Amino acid sequence: MKLGRRALVRGGARLLGLAALGCSSSPKPEPVADVRLRPLSSLPVTELSWLRLHDHFIATVGPSAGMGRPLGSLQVLADATFAPRSRFPLHPHREMEILSIVLSGELSHHGDQSHGTTLRPREAQLVSARDGMFHAEGNETDEDTRMLQLWFAPTQHGGAPAYFRRSVPQAARRGRHLVAGDEAMPLRSDARVWWLDVAVGQETALEVAPGRAGYLLSLDAALQLGQGRVLARGEGAQLLRGGLTLRASQDCSALWIDVAA
Predict the structure, then answer these.
(1) Domain residue spans in the chain?
(2) How far apart are CA 117 and CA 125, in angstroms?
(3) Is pTM, for the whole model, over 0.90?
(4) pLDDT per residue over 230-255, tens digit each?
(5) Which of 15, 43, 129, 192 would bridge with 93, disulfide CB 3.0–4.6 Å?
(6) What digits encode the pLDDT tens for the residues 66-114?
(7) Residues of 28-37 as b/e, b for ≥16 C-beta within 10 angstroms?
(8) How far apart are the C-alpha atoms of 29 and 120, rounded to whole Å?
């Protein structure tokens, strides 16, 4: 069938209108996810008589201290286990956002401003060091304590140190729970930290927006990422583009960190 000039013009205008609306007979493909696994064997390990830790970014103690690279404002992610009746010596911090999250046991916090608290599993404390403070964490019990400590470089500076605390809900034990990055736990950094509870048979989708990056840490059991890739307990995955889907063969938890790249 032969189309006249008028029909061709009308058809072309219609196609241009669809293109302006973002419609196309061949939709844009989804961006391929850029996922970089961080197995335990690739992480620096510090082993002392009273402390064992894995550093996912910049190491702060041990033979690898100072080594590693940040992810955006995320400078440090230390997965640390304290032996019973042990603690760091009192030490200073300045202009750093310090987030501590307890996974098992109890974590005691001591400082130079009469600020003392004890954190239990699924509890977090944010210390905004600002103009400077002294503190120390430790374990005053007869059992091991496992905790995570994250350091973020601030985008605002100065002022008196500030302390914040939050509990991650125990109820349903599924879904995602914001740990830090809102008014109740106000990180002075373009970052948010989430606790993920992943139940058997449940799929959890994660995605990073343009200009951002994410880091996933498996806390207590293996997590399957999409097709074939698995994170063992304590292993991480850096997501620089696109998204991924989490599945678990048993109920488990993970930490998800979203930062400006």
Answers:
(1) 30-260
(2) 9
(3) no
(4) 999 999 999 999 999 999 999 999 99
(5) 129
(6) 999 999 999 999 999 999 999 999 999 999 999 999 999 999 998 876 5
(7) eeeeebebee
(8) 45
